[in-house]
Amino acid sequence: MEPLILPAGIALHGSTGGITVLMVEVPAELLELTRGAARISVLTGAGMSAESGVPTFRDAQDGLWAQYDPMTLATPEAFADQPDLVWAWYAWRRHLMTTIEPHAGHRALTRWGEHAAVEVITQNVDDLHERAGHHVLAHLHGSLFSLRCFDCDLPYDMPVEVPTQQVERLEPPLCPACLGHIRPDIVWFGEPLPVPAFERAEQSVTEADLVLVIGTSGAVFPAAGLPLLARANGVPTVEINPVPTELSHETTLNWRITAGAGLPALVSALG
What we know:
Blueprint: E1 4-6, E2 10-14, E3 20-24, H1 28-35, E4 39-44, H2 46-50, H3 70-73, H4 76-81, H5 83-97, H6 104-112, E5 117-122, H7 128-131, E6 136-139, E7 142-149, E8 155-156, E9 182-186, H8 195-207, E10 210-214, H9 225-232, E11 237-240, E12 253-255, H10 259-270
Parallel strand pairs: 1-12, 4-5, 4-10, 5-6, 10-11, 11-12
Antiparallel strand pairs: 2-3, 7-8, 7-9
């Protein structure tokens, strides 16, 4: 069955003092699905973070990092060869995240989670969901703020230096157990997704009453297969994205709106 495409339903209303107020009308079809859902699984992608101003993987290549292809920095081979170079790149990305705040969509999911079981699965490596007050069920691609040993995989929770200016090389800490280099606990090119996180995600989307797919292109597998798994198990899926994606023809409803505008309106409409 072809998915139902829902317009954004946004209107601009002038108010006293010349302030323009954004009003979002939530489609009735979407409200009908969400009002009957006690357990909601939410898959978020890069578009969710981009609304907060998080630079994309390539957009972060500014200043001295412009000379590097990020694909060459995001591999275990690169880290093994030049750990100080790769560590400096990720340390700079951690610094960039300290200048960015969660947006209204992140906070709306947190409010919704106070009244329903809202399980967040994210492809993003930032901590914006957590800083908005929402526990993340699964970081499918890991997190910039989680660290482990490159050699023995032991988690590392000691404070690390985060430069406020770009530096090309920065020595990573050493593992207290084996003296191996500490690395970001994220999925680099050529590495598999963390099995426990993906298993939690699969269970979530198959046992949910509703799956929301927010801000993801649907081009990166196996994460892009989660909405397909949900539909195969009879779970309705809703895409919230201002533009069509590779998943648009696979979802039950498509709402053409940003997360920052759509989620607060939806949560408010649910009361």
